[in-house]
């Protein structure tokens, strides 16, 4: 009884601490101060309080008054270059085989088909798995099926050399998917996505939450039960490090030069769970009861979103969402990550948070209603097509400002901080070469503005930007032309002393 109660008490204390942190952060006297800036010729990545630079060879902690170096490894060869990474965190309440498994680690993918598990604290290689020989290339595609439980490594699309194509040789295998259980790292199986099974027009595949998502060139999206596929078509299970004799090959699973056996052979088309046609294969599932969002598969419908019931494909009442904005960048829509079943629709100057609710007197029908809206600050923006000069001459404009004109405040990023239950937005105004951005925190339940943080650095809307908010930390990563990267770190400070005090 006593042991089972401890995690609950720890959880209550943790929630109270986060509630206290949220109140402190939203106080008027609390500021966010730029404490550290760095520049790099290689990409900069951020994961849970750690800043990675120089192709993950350098790790810097941001959980301090000022970021400090955790480790710096020697420069790696081009053949060892890391293309993608996922952070692994220790599962609660499980016995693990190695003490290193209880600490955070990185799973990384190299250009030479190696999957490595690195210590997040030292960069030391804890495990090495060789994925495959020259038959396919695994790089750039690491993703979660089930977060922190099942991981997918996807190959690049297989393409025959030009000479083979000219000789009339047909390429039937498009992708390979390697499936792993993590912590402890174990091999579940590898399968191929074949034209003979799924059709000639397959363009891409993905796996998420136990669903195999297959995308086609004509905008069609098909869903299959991925777990059922693994169970039905598994020919023989293998463990990492196990010696094998497979299809005439003798080797060790996960070791060079053999890699992993393709031990899941799909011999027949799996049962179809669902299919839909959507512009650019855009398709999302969420809400309660389950709904999906698509754009009708015609270019004229770009920016129009249909919200339909997954049960019977019925369009929800008010389920056609169209902001009718005239902008260079399209608006975007997605299910709220807070698991509330709500929907976030973001346009240049407007953020709508929508909710699903039952139609009155029709319990089996759902409608879309606005929960709240957040509007960009454009009070000083005047956009008249006709103006009158001081002399009284009438001047007509030959053009109309776009809704995302850089001289008007425009939403660029919307995110959700789950631990503090805050909805964060980045809004930008750029006049000439000088762009100014501010990060705002809104109450996730009602949309009320709680805090606004001006970012000190200039923000150019033509560059690529990422902004992370992690409890008391704000981190901005910017990619400029010619692969120049910058990172700006802000820390929360209670502004009770002079600004120049440490």
From TrEMBL:
Transmembrane segments annotated in the record for this chain: 173-193, 205-224
Origin: domain of life: Eukaryota
Keywords: Membrane, Transmembrane, Transmembrane helix
Xref: Pfam families: DCAF17 (PF15802)
Matches recorded under InterPro entries: DCAF17
GO cellular component: Cul4-RING E3 ubiquitin ligase complex
Biological process per Gene Ontology, one example term: protein ubiquitination
PANTHER family the UniProt entry points to: DDB1- AND CUL4-ASSOCIATED FACTOR 17 (PTHR14815)
Name of protein: DDB1- and CUL4-associated factor 17
Organism, scientific name: Geospiza fortis
């Amino acid at each position: 009884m006593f042991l089972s109660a401890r995690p609950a008490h720890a959880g209550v204390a943790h929630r109270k601490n986060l509630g206290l942190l949220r109140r402190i952060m939203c106080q008027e006297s609390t500021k966010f101060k730029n404490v550290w800036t760095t520049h790099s010729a290689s990409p900069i990545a951020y994961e849970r309080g750690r800043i990675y630079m120089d192709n993950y060879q350098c790790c810097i902690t941001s959980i301090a008054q000022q970021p400090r170096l955790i480790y710096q490894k020697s420069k790696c060869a081009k053949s060892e270059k890391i293309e993608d990474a996922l952070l692994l965190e220790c599962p609660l309440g499980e016995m693990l085989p190695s003490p290193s498994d209880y600490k955070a680690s990185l799973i990384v993918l190299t250009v030479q088909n190696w999957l490595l598990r690195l210590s997040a604290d030292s960069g030391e290689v804890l495990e090495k798995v060789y994925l495959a020989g020259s038959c396919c290339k695994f790089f750039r595609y690491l993703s979660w099926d089930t977060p922190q439980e099942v991981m997918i490594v996807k190959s690049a699309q297989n393409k025959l050399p030009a000479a083979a194509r000219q000789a009339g040789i047909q390429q039937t295998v498009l992708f390979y998917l390697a499936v792993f259980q993590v912590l402890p790292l174990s091999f579940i199986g590898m399968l191929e996505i074949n034209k003979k099974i799924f059709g000639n027009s397959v363009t891409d595949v993905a796996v998420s939450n136990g669903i195999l998502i297959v995308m086609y060139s004509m905008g069609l999206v098909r869903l299959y039960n991925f777990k059922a596929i693994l169970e039905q078509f598994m020919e023989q299970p293998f463990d990492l490090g196990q010696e094998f004799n497979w299809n005439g090959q003798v080797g060790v699973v996960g070791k060079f030069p053999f890699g992993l056996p393709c031990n899941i052979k799909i011999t027949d088309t799996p049962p179809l769970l669902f299919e839909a046609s959507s512009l650019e294969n855009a398709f999302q599932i969420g809400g309660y009861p389950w709904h999906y969002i698509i754009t009708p598969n015609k270019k004229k419908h770009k920016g129009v979103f249909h919200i339909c019931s997954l049960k019977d494909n019925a369009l929800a009442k008010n389920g056609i969402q169209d902001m009718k904005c005239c902008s260079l960048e399209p608006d975007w829509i997605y299910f709220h990550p807070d698991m509330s079943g709500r929907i976030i629709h973001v346009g240049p100057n407007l953020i709508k948070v929508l909710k699903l609710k039952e139609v009155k007197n029709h319990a089996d029908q759902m409608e879309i209603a606005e929960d709240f809206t957040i509007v960009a600050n454009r009070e000083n923006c005047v956009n008249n097509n006709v103006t009158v000069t001081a002399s009284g001459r009438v001047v007509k404009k030959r053009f109309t400002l776009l809704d995302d004109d850089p001289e008007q405040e425009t939403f660029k990023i919307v995110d959700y901080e789950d631990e503090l239950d805050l909805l964060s937005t980045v809004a930008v105004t750029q006049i000439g070469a000088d762009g100014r951005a501010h990060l705002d925190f809104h109450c996730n339940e009602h949309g009320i503005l709680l805090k606004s943080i001006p970012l000190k650095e200039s923000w150019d809307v033509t560059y690529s930007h990422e902004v992370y908010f992690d409890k008391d930390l704000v981190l901005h990563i910017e990619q400029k032309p010619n692969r120049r990267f910058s990172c700006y770190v802000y820390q929360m400070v209670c502004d009770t002393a002079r600004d120049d005090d440490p």
